[in-house]
Amino acid sequence: MTLVAHLKELRNRIAIALLFILLGTAVCFWWYEHGLGTFIRAPYCSIPGDDRALGTGSTTGDCRLLVTDVFGGALIRLKIAFIGGVVVSAPFWLYQIWGFITPGLKRNEKRYGVAFVAASSSLFALGAVLAYFSLKAGLTLLLGLAGDDVAIALTAQDYIGFVISILLAFGVSFEVPLIAVVLNLIGVLTYAVLSRSRRWIFFLTIVFAAFITPTQDPFTMLLMAGPMIVLFELAIQVARVVDKRRARRAVADGLAGLDDDEASPLVAPTVRLDDAPAPIDEPTTTPR
């Protein structure tokens, strides 16, 4: 394909991906009144009713968020619908991206690409789910610090922004151990380095969790740091297996023990009978 043909294909695939996102946004905009809004407000509505100024019941229909401007409700609904549409339509627009780049990949690169996308998506979803279930405890702790004489009336903008930041923080943080695995697969980071730095990795993980969590409370920080430490330990063990396989392959190829600046021995290729050149026909002379 020419460059112009590649650009046309990219334009068409981007248009199709945006169409899927638009359809997903429309579905989530309708879904907002049929469960999506209730799902988002559930962590806030699960805290004790005495701590809320608007609605003291325990059900999501009794608790309410505050909107302070005319367009606040519409913008909040559009924001939630767009984010939900991106998530719901993710398999379709990710397929368009994969369909554009896959013709230029080799077979092993396609295999690694599929494995990386599957692992990163699963880790992000795991982090977001864990963050959602930790919101109740985090909100209860933070709002309870105001005391018994204070009733909280959260605005919809502040609460939605808080929820989204928590979900993104947990989702992105769970991707960090995957980077260590990728660096090991391409030979940049070895198991020996990871093993020696295990204590520093765990300590920096706790520091990272303390800075990235929007709530800044110890419960949420430990809830993020604990699974991250487990994932880093799994990444270290994956690096150990990969390095062992790489070492066995180097021994089999006769490359074990070579320094980085030392040339590897050349292995003559095996010539098969069917690879031998065909005989050259004798030139024929034509009479004048």
Question: What's the helical proportion of residues?
Answer: 55-70%
Give the number of helices.
10
Main β-sheet: number of strands, strand sense, barrel status? none
Radius of gyration: 29 Å
Task: Provide keyphrases for this structure.
mainly alpha, flat, 288 residues, 10 helices, 2 domains, 66% helix
What do these coordinates show?
By secondary structure, this protein is mainly alpha-helical. The chain folds into two domains: 1-174, no CATH class; 175-255, no CATH class. The chain has helices at residues 3-31, 36-45, 72-88, 90-101, 107-144, 156-173, 176-185, 191-196, 198-212, 218-252. Helix 1 (3-31) crosses helix 3. The longest helix has 38 residues, at 107-144. The model has no long low-confidence stretch (mean pLDDT 79).
Write the layout of secondary structure elements.
Blueprint: H1 3-31, H2 36-45, H3 72-88, H4 90-101, H5 107-144, H6 156-173, H7 176-185, H8 191-196, H9 198-212, H10 218-252
